[in-house]
Amino acid sequence: MFGRLGMWELILILIIALVIFGPSKLPEVGKSIGKAINEFKRQTNKITEDIDLESDQEESKN
Questions:
Q1: Structural domain for 43, as ranges
Q2: Domains of the chain: total
């Protein structure tokens, strides 16, 4: 359903963002989105590591 975005889709999204936020706010919005994505990735990696550590501890008990 949600395949890869092509060039035209990305251009359309950029134009819509430009209209909504304006050219002066667009870099700030991009930076905020980038920070949010990085934080999300960091937290999902931490959760994965915690689950792996817990499962390793359970295996060593048995």
A1: 24-62
A2: 1
